[in-house]
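[job 0417] fold request received: ABC transporter ATP-binding protein
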Amino acid sequence: MTTGRDVLRSAIAGQRKSVVAGAVLAAGHQGGEALVPVVIGVVLDRAVADSSVLTLLGWLAVLAVVFLVLSSSYRFGARAAERASERAAHEIRLAVSRRVLHPRGGVENGALAGELVSVGTSDARRVGMINAVLPFGVAALAGLVVSAVVLLRMSVPLGLLVLLGTPPLLFLAHLIGKPLEKRSEVEQERAAHASGVAADLVSGLRVLKGIGAEPAATARYRRTSRDSLRATIRAARAQAWHNGALLALTGIFIAIVALVGGSLAANGEISVGDLVAAVGLAQFLQTPFTIFAWVNGQLAQGRASAGRVAAVLSAPPAVPEGTGELPAPAAGGVELSAVSHGKLRELDLVVPPGELLGVVTADPATATDLLDCLGRFADPRSGAVRVDAVNLSTVDPDRVRDVVLVAAHDTDLFEGTVEENVRGGMPAVPDGVLTASAADEVAATLPSGTATAVTERGRSLSGGQRQRVALARALATETPVLVLHDPTTAVDTVTEARIAAGVAELRRNRTTIVVTTSPALLTVTDRVVLIEDGRVVAEGSHAELVRAEAAYRAAVLS
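[job 0417] inference complete; emitting structure tokens
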């Protein structure tokens, strides 16, 4: 079974060629940087000491070639590393998007939409950065090796000092990075939560204004934002301590190298040129150790973000896979046998193929639980939901939703035109759909009709217009079983009556379940069932239930 960490490893390792190319080129840059003070030392020992102009010009040409090589290596190495980083981050973003949009669900449980967006953007970028920093880490190591080899040729004590002193320094850098890793994880969690709360509040801004809850919403976001700010400051403080501690350690180490080199020169064990080279190399060593500090910090943050991404990718699905098959074409018969799920209590319900059924419940949670079971967004705790005698829990959710479409009352629209929202992925809008949903009236009031652009989530339309366009989209699928949840709560009574008649006519001989308390919709149904305490307690026509059931009258006519 593929886990979230397997996906991350695959995304990062998939850019191995670019990472290796970047590492080789960046190593050439660092090796060239290390050779610069060595060449200068040679110039002092050979050209200046001998007063030879030709020798001086020759070594200056060598120095120019070194600069050309190291400059080109850096440019192309950085390009390869950045390519590997961006491609890995892109693969991770795609993996997160696929998991979030997977028909078996499960990721959205307990997570705000903004949090998932943060994982798919900020965290994915930080994980992808691993591919960007690894080549430079290898390059810094190459620079240390070149420096150590050169120093060994000059003096064994100097070379051994660098070779033996580097591993403990790297180990200390790893230990120093642990607090940064922990605080970076908390920082990302707080930032993601703040993004989720912000997205949640913005999407519900009209409702908040309508009930006068802006102060409470503002206070909530202010608390969340301050928590995020405090976590960010703690992470920044950890970053500062991390960088400062590493700079102090490397500064002490470089000072020791320079001190030993100066002592050897004073004793005549190395030449003046060697001393200049040793001092230059000691100064150069600041660069690879600075790179190590940066790499270590980025890896710490990348590990923290990788844990968050892996948690999303490894989230258990809401429903298991299925190998069963629904008949094609499906007749559309629906049966619920002793279904218990959430507020549902051993619910029994049979919907013959082609019936227009009304379902009334005063409890919104009961309606939600029923919709979840019909659309296989969740499997019942006990009992079975069958379509054409096939248990839906044995069928893959994708195939279930080809046959059973559950249209929630709060469905969002997307950016694009009205027609594109209704048509979805189909080549054309079926005849009668716009009329049945009263979306033709919406188009008539818009400047470009169905070609009018709709903004994000359909915010450029009124609530009633959005609802009619969303209903048209559901009707356009012509699915064998259509489940509608309160499709007319935002329209006036005249329009509601027109929609009720239109839906009944358009869906004739196709199974349609309308979960609603709207008298206009219930009037046109073939049959209505009343659910109380998770069970069907009464059934009949709308008129019969109005006369006979007080609970029905309270739910529908109040």
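[job 0417] notes: The chain has 19 helices and twelve strands. The two ends are 53 Å apart (CA to CA).
[job 0417] exit 0
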